[in-house]
Amino acid sequence: MSDVVPGDFREWFRGFFAWRLRKGFPKSFHAVRLAKGSRAVLDRAAAHDGPLVIASNHQSWWDPLVGFLVHDAWFPGRRPLSPMDASQLAKFGFFRKLGVFGVDPDDASGLRPFVRYVESQFREHPRSALMLTPQGRFVDPRDAVKVRPGVAMVMARVPSAHAVAVAIEYAFWNDRRPEVFLLASRVEPPADPADSRGWEEAFDRAMNGNAAELAALVRARDAAAFECIAGGGGTRTHPVYDRWLRITGRDPSIETAHRREAAR
């Protein structure tokens, strides 16, 4: 039977990692944008007096780091839990200090140890936040989301848990750096909260609905549909040329709103 490699959470390291991530993220991304209405979903989750399950789609190496940004912004007082391929965790052992634990995603016998480990952490730390990508592998965002059963089994066995689905998408708008787009919704419980199959369908429904809604918002390229939770200042072309434009009294930002107005 596959065993779980336990996490070794250290709050000081979480704080240091969050600080480094906030400092370094703008080098790779122009902005992190949260779809309107999502803040209320995350605020409600933050106020929940019990464990949280935050499920996101998995298309990029960046996904867990984006999840950590969400955790740092809304759930910093909660002990984080995140599963990771044990073979990769062996290479990047420092992640254990962030609450990451190791599993074998290709071993079906590892499912029950995964659920038991999460249950034990929820009992010991009732305000933990399990953050995971239940697709279990990298998947193109245009493909339908299909959830593996582990997250549904956790929800069926932990009635005090509150589940949220967060869709993530990466796209280029007007800056040379890409943008991160997020949309959150609650995963509505099935008629029988102890039914893991019902939870699996609920996660599938919420995550696919989020992905479709977020894709439509990103394609519309309307910043007013989002709130900017990180970055989002003027666009940049090149530091030297940007400075020259400012010196000569010109705004270096790329602005296309006037074209949308003209098209109406």
Question: What do you see in this structure?
Answer:
The chain has helices spanning 11-28, 38-47, 63-74, 86-91, 111-124, 150-157, 196-220, 239-247, 257-263; strands at 31-35, 52-56, 80-85, 100-103, 129-132, 162-171, 179-186, 226-231. The protein is 41% helix and 18% strand. A hairpin with a 7-residue loop joins strand 6 (162-171) and strand 7. It is globular and about 45 Å long. The protein has 2 domains: 11-233, Glycerol-3-phosphate (1)-acyltransferase, CATH 3.40.1130.10; 234-264, no CATH class. It has 264 residues and is of the alpha/beta class. The chain has an 8-stranded mixed β-sheet with strand order 4-3-5-2-6-7-1-8, with helices on both faces. The model is unreliable at 236-242 (pLDDT under 50).
Distance between the termini: 62 Å
Shape, principal axes of CA atoms: globular
Radius of gyration: 20 Å
Number of separate structural domains: 2
Nearest-integer average pLDDT:
87
Q: How would you describe this structure in keywords?
A:
8 strands, 41% helix, single chain, eight-stranded mixed beta sheet, Glycerol-3-phosphate (1)-acyltransferase, 264 residues
What is this structure, in a nutshell?
It contains nine helices and eight strands. It has 264 residues and is an alpha/beta fold.
